[in-house]
Amino acid sequence: MIRRCTSIVGLLVSLSFAQHLVCAADAEQGPTEQAVAEISKFDVRPGDWPQWGGWSHRNNTPAGENFPSEWDVDGGDNIIWSAALGSQSYGNPIVANGHVYVGTNNHRSYISRFPKSIDLGVLLCFDEKTGEFLWQHSSPKLSTGRVHDWPDQGICASPVVDGERLWYVTSRGEVCCLDTNGFRDGVNNGPFKAEDNENEDEADIIWKYDMMALLGVSQHNMCSCSLLCVGDVIFVNTSNGVDESHTNIPAPNAASFLAMNRDTGAVLWTDKSPGLNILHGQWSSPSYGVFNGQAQVIFAGGDGWVYSFDPVGDGAGNSKMLWKFDCNPKESKYSVSGRSERNHIIGTPVIYNGWIYIGVGEDPEHGEGNGHLWCIDPTKFGDVSPTIAVDKDGEPIVDKKDGTRRLQAINPAAGEKAIPNENSAVVWHYSGDDTDGNGEIDFEEEMHRTCGTAVIKDDILYIADFSGIFHCLDAKTGKSHWNYDMFAAAWGSPLLVDGKVYIGDEDGDIAVFEHSKTMKLLSENSVGNSVYSSPIAANGVLYIANKSTLFAIGTASEKEEDAE
Known about the structure:
The protein has 564 residues and is mostly beta strands. Helix content is 8%, strand content 31%.
């Protein structure tokens, strides 16, 4: 288990140790082996998947074999167990130390004092082998209403677990540290000891930090960030955003990104770079990597930019930015009505073989639209965007993040334009490709807005977009291998395990493909209703949540082992 720290010196030691681990893995291993090596440093069991994406590179490629490509949720074929969730479930499950955790709302009402008529954000804990409900953490709705805490949305992100501690972001904008045993161990662990009760089916809070009260954050509609844990530090996207008018940013000076000590909740540094240029919300999750010896934590902002920071900050409570990258064309315009050309970012940056992969997206309520998928070289510094904005005289335009260029980076009518950036870190850019060679880029060949995150292995990249197109690309060149139309919106991200790729859609189907440059659909399996999250795999079992049920899926041998 990584050594704990309570000081800047300890922080440096902890992050240096984590840096050594990632560097060694990058030099010698593929993504699955890297994930296994990194997870082994957590106090979890081999085969667990203890955070979103499993590890710091956020590449959902766990180890394992003999995973089924077919199942029947009605007949029970290859279903080990199922557990009822609320009526809306967006949080991706994670598995650690015999428990499965997933976010949802309170419609199932596992706790008697909270009937389903009481709307809550709920983090549920189940037994990994049986699916038995163990305990839940409950977050009452904010009194300010839907502008901060949309009805019935529940917990929309994933926790991270190390040993007997769990960290996650609540729907109330709190970062919480919980005891993974709940009160089932008969102990109220502190320092926080003001829980409503100590019933064994409720959560034992270790500490909590209210980002709205203490940092002045004003989250838009919900708070959603799957926390990243590196050493003793957790990294958080605060979800700071617009108000109900969708034109005003009420807290431009509040933190968008921050680092915290995971043992105490002490804030180590904050950053407010998106400022008054936040387009809507900020619901992405950070990733971490080491490039040419420089550790970097990667955040995707609500202004459509990707930011890289030194994980240690400047040592004085401030961030230390390394580079930034604009994922939108300078001439694109933002609007919440109709099909805006400009987007922010909901997916998570993925790191693979020293490069960063990210797609742009938008609140699904704003509909479909054009998209961009980028591959970025993280070894440059400064503004590494594809282009820079210049005025009519060719002088660079400095965007002060004061909102004047929030909706459009340049004004062509005033003679402003975008020119190539000599410091650009673009490896490749994908907005579509003539995959079938007919001389046109058809709808199915275009990259649209995405809420999802890429998965990559063997230089093959997969990503789903919100228009329901599943893309397979060459990770080195961005050239399209194949596309598949699911005929339903895709909110989540793919899973790649055992030579198979799994992706869910809003119709409640899970498509299963062979991991290959040539498209081969193995099966399509219904899970009963809409899938808004991402499949994961741990310890030989698939975990797939539709909006109201969590399924543990495995072969007959897995069912027999679990029965024992």
